[in-house]
């Protein structure tokens, strides 16, 4: 999305080492923002290096409160501030409800709900007037079309992404009421052929819900009025828009980026 200028903005993207997070980080950088890649994987170092010398990497386990505090501190000191936070890190473990394992529930809850909640907490603390960045800004949470539809095999994932939607709306209200100057929105990505998306197609086929991974993908496309899967740049463009002044009067919103699948 080259028409939007984010020059001077300082962004932190969680889960930025691969997939949607990497694409979002690259799009923000292409729009002029300075980006800090945050990821539990050190592969994020290579992504940050590929963006250029002004960008950085911080190792972040999004489920750890102290780790979040240090990642925010590192971001502010390394790239000179923080006014954009993309809470993208997430996991999906496919299972029928009759077979779901408690450990799988806990992992998705911890990364998708606890991780996003801590991100909002520390992002608001950093960007509000008395914070170490203190210039206001925007938080963009990554939910999923799974929060708006009933797709088999992903019940718990869907529940966690529904929670991200609710967190977004309450955070936007609190930020506004308390004068933090931080807009909080989320996007609902459709199925994208990243490693996670491909894994989901294989998993639901293995569960017997579709004849093959290809049939699963075809089923998603059939449910999508736009007639195709999403692409990484579709999601990245939405993030760039919500990060920009073009969205300056948008807060507490969930933006579907799903080709109409969830309507």
Automatic annotation (TrEMBL):
SUPFAM superfamilies: NAD(P)-binding Rossmann-fold domains. Keywords: Oxidoreductase. CDD domains: SDR_c. Gene3D superfamilies: NAD(P)-binding Rossmann-like Domain. Pfam families: adh_short_C2. It comes from the Bacteria. One of its GO terms (molecular function) is oxidoreductase activity. The keyword Oxidoreductase applies. Belongs to the short-chain dehydrogenases/reductases (SDR) family. This is NADP-dependent 3-hydroxy acid dehydrogenase YdfG. It comes from Gordonia westfalica.
